[in-house]
Amino acid sequence: MKFAKIVILVVLCLGVFGGGGYLAYRNLILPAQPSAREIDAQRAAALPPTPPPDPAGPELAKVQALRKAKKPAEARELLAAILANYPNSPRIDEARTALGEMNADMALSTAPSPDKVEYVVKPGDSLDKIARQFKSSSELIMRSNNLVNTIIQPGQRLAIFQPEFSLEIYLAEKRVVLLQHGKFFKQFAIVSASLPGGTKPVETKTRIAEKAAFRDGKRVTFGTKEYAGSARWIILAQPGYTIFAETPAGTPGAAAKPPTGLGLSEGDMEELHALVGNSQPVTIFP
């Protein structure tokens, strides 16, 4: 009987102290388990925030529809509006690229444009003479009229694009922007850069001093058979700044790189070289 009382007492003690120990472990030692609602909230917080809707998205969809419908003028006008109204759109570079391609296609073809006039060739005319008259370039007139050479005949009708170009060079962003009448026309990616040493680049206003072309290490002139496939340079009045065609090592006919300057792809450089002319203004941004 005495033994039974001892056993009961031990059991009661174990029950009391064991329960208290378990409660202490549960409340003080065991980490609190979150509820299902808390788990959902934690998961939601771990997800990246949902970006706000892009206001330029519907407009770009309209551009695609206009291009498919072969309405380039309307598409170009809408792209220009997107650049003006939504400069912070995550798809702004897409809009710039599309507008640049369409602008270049228009300028370097017989496609109509408010910036073009029709000119009837007169006796004694030459491409150089017409280019000087309209402050254009012989190469631009030749390419925009699909001419195979520089020979023109009296009575021939030419579409003359009237350029009012300027260049903006953004060194940090590695791009060259061509403006027409002060508005975006096309941008070109800088693929290599070697700038004059010793000074930190600052905002600089300069101009195009000269355009040049090289083949097999020799300078060639527009209109000659050697000009086709030559490496093009645009030499700025600012010392040390030459825009040139970045050709792979070993390319036949490639010119040596200038000591310093900005390299564009061959295709971009050929296009830019055809569009711009001497003395056009350039602004360089750090």
What's the overall average pLDDT, rounded?
84
Number of helices: 8
Number of strands: 12
Based on the structure given, which CATH architecture of the largest domain is correct?
Answer: Beta Barrel
| Sheet having the most strands | 10 strands, mixed
Shape: globular
Kindly identify the CATH topology of the largest domain: L,D-transpeptidase catalytic domain-like
Order of helices and strands: HHHHHEHHEEEEEEEEEEHE
**Low-pLDDT runs:** 9-14
Our estimate of the beta-strand percent is 15-25%
Oligomer: single chain
Straight-line N-to-C gap: 100 Å
Taking all Cα atoms into account, the compactness measure Rg is: 34 Å
| Top CATH class of the largest domain | Mainly Beta
Compute the number of structural domains. 3
What does this protein look like?
With 286 residues, the chain is α+β, with helices and mostly antiparallel strands. The protein has 3 domains: 47 residues, no CATH class; 46 residues, Membrane-bound Lytic Murein Transglycosylase D, Chain A (Roll), CATH 3.10.350; 121 residues, L,D-transpeptidase catalytic domain-like (Beta Barrel), CATH 2.40.440. The chain is 37% helix and 23% strand. It contains 8 helices and 12 strands. The strands form 2 sheets. Strands 3, 4, 5, 6, 7, 8, 9, 10, 11 and 12 form a 10-stranded mixed beta sheet that branches. Strand 4 and strand 5 form a beta hairpin. Helix 3 packs antiparallel against helix 4 and helix 4 runs antiparallel to helix 5. The radius of gyration is 34 Å and the shape is globular. The relative contact order is 0.10.
